Amino acid sequence: MNSLNPVNSPEALTMSIQLVTAAEGYGVQGRGPSIAADLVALAGMAIGALALARAKGRAGTGSGRTGAVVAMAVGLTGMILAGVALAIADGGPGTGNGVVGSAFALVLGLFGIVLGVRARARSRREGLTG
Predict the structure, then answer these.
(1) Rounded distance, CA 106 to CA 86, Å?
(2) What is the C-alpha separation between 47 and 34, in angstroms, rounded?
């Protein structure tokens, strides 16, 4: 009867146990804070790029001043999260604890801040309000 229902077969059970065992080695519990820092810093960089485009008058009708401030705040938040992730990491690069991802988030957050500063300066120079 098991041959008619492959879901209840011993082979299916063995295969699912092997898949679960293999998946346990690829957990993100050590990389979770690093991934969060990467996403926040990447969002800051994207917001900064959009704010810079608005400050140049390329995108939309609004100014880039508000976006510039948001980009700087989100970039700084990403850098702070990356610093915390680096502080709680239990090993060096290659250990799976998110050290490299946290360092990458520091760079992304810095780019977000720089883009925000440039957008704010450009919007001030052009006399835009917002």
Answers:
(1) 10
(2) 20
